[in-house]
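Readers of this paper often ask what the protein records in our data store actually look like. An entry from our holdings is shown next, in its original layout:
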Amino acid sequence: MLIAASPPAKRPPRPRPMPTSSSCSISPSATTPSRSPPNSSTTPAPASPSSPGPPMAPPPAASLNRPDPTSSVSPRSRPPPKPPPASLLSSAARSPAARSTPPSPKPSTAAARPSRSPPPFGLSNEYSVSMTPSRRFFMQGALAAATTARASANDRIRLGVIGCGGISRSVTNAFLASKEVEVAAICDVDDQCIANTLKRLESEGHPRPATAKDFRRVIERKDIDVVAVCTPDHWHAIPTLAAFQAGKDVYVEKPLATSIGEGRVLRDAARRYNRVAQMGTHWRSGEHYAEAVELVRSGKIGKVRQVRCWAYLDWVKDAGNPPDSPVPAGVDYDLWLGPAPARPFNKNRFHFNFRWFWDYAGGLMTDWGVHLINIALWAMGPEWPKSVVASGGKYLLQDNTETPDTQITVYDFPSYTLIWEHQVQCGLGPDRREHGVMFTGSDATLILDTSGWEIIAEPLKRGSMVEMRRRSRTTETMRAQHARNLLDCMKSRQPTVENLDVGHHVSAVAHLGNLALRSKSRIEWDADTAQVPGNAAANALVTARYRAPWKLD
C-alpha cells in the first residue's frame, strides 16, 4: 500500500549516455625534456567556432608567487580566518548532508612556511599520502588565496574547465545557471572537444574563453577562481591537487579518484590548503533526496536493517572488439593516458567507454554505485563497513571491455546490511525501476529514485504511518543547485554538501566493492590504516601506481 497520497509516479526516464571528455593531461615537468603542448603558442588562433580559441601563454615565472594585481580581492585585504572545523554544517540550510561527513581530524591550522621556488610537478610513478608543505606546487599562491573570500556577492566568478566532453557540458551549464559565473578558460587534449565547446558557448551568447591542452595553463591563470575537473576518472586526482595548491576551489566529478589512496590525498589536501570543494554527485542537492533522507533518519519508517541499491541499465550495449588503431588527428594520446599504463590506442578505451577499463575507472560499481550508495550513506551515517564480499563478472557482453556487466556486493555495517547490484541490458530492477535505493524499516519501506520517493507500509502497521507526499526534481535542476551550493560556500568558506570528507568516504565504499571482487576475497577494512589486514591482493589495489614521470604529490 502506497502511503504518499499522490498517484504513483511514472517510471523514471532512462538516462542516456553522453560522450565523456577525453582527459586533460599533464606534460613532464621542467626537470625532464618536455615538449610544448600543440596549442600553447601565445599567438591568438582565429576566432572560428571550428577551431580552438586563443591559446593561453603561461604567466611569467615570478607571477606564480606574486598576488594578481587584477584580482578583485587582495591576499592582504583581511587577516586569515581560521579554517572551518570539519564538523561545521554546510551552508545549504543545515542540510542532513552535513551530518553525514565521516569523523575526521581537524584541519591543520599550523602556519605555513614561505615557499621556495616551486618544484616540478608530476615526476614519479608513485604518490605519497604524506604531503610536506615545502614541496607543494604553487604553494605561495595557495597560501594567499586560501585565506580570502570574494569581496562581494556582485563579483564575477571565473570558471576554468578541465575536460570538454559530455559531462563537461552538463557541469558548465549548471555553473552558468548562476549569472555571476563566466567560463574563462577550457582545456582538453582533443582539439575537436575544444572546438565543440567553443561553438556551443558562443551560440549561447557567452564570452569566448581561452583554450589549452595542458591543464596547468588553466590552473596557472590568476583570474581563475574555481576549477571544474570533468575528465575521465584517472585524471581526477592530479588536476584537483594542483588546483588546491594553486589556491583554487574545485568542483571534481565523481568518483573522487580511481583508488582509495588517491581519495585520501585529495581529502587531506582540501583540509591542508583550506579549499572549498564539491564532488559532482549532484543528487546530494536534490530536495526530494534530502526529504527522503530526513524521513529515514527521523525514524518515520522504523528501524532500518537493510538498504538495497541497484542500477539495471539496458542502455549499456556491447561495444564490440575494434582493433587498435592510429591516434585520431588533434588528439594528444600520451597526455590523455597521463598516469595510466601505456596502451595502444583503441577507440573503446577513449571517450565514453573509458569507464569500462580498470586502467581508467571502476565500471558501474563506481560510476553509478557512487550515486546510489551516496544516498544510502547520507541516510544511514558515516560509518565504514566491517566487511565486504562481492561476486560477478562479464557474463553477457562479448566485447573487449574489462569491468563486470553483472555484480552483487554485500556490505556488512555495524547495524545494517547494504546491498549493491548492477546488470546491463536489462532495465527492470526492484519495483520495476531501473535504478533506486530501498530502505527496509521495521514499520515501512521507503523507495527512492530520481523521480521521487514513496513509502510502502508494513501490513500490520499501516495505521501508524503519517500521510506523506512525493517530491520530484529534474537532473539539471539538481546540478544547478549543486553548483550553486559550491558558489555560495566559496563566499562563506563553509563546507559544501558533498565536500571531500563526504566524497572520499562515499567513493571509498564503492571502491571496496571492486577490491572484494578483484581480489576474490572477503574484505575486512581498517579505515584508520586504509588497509585490508592480511590481504596482499586487496592491498595492492588500494593505491594507484602511476606511470613515470607522473606523480601525485
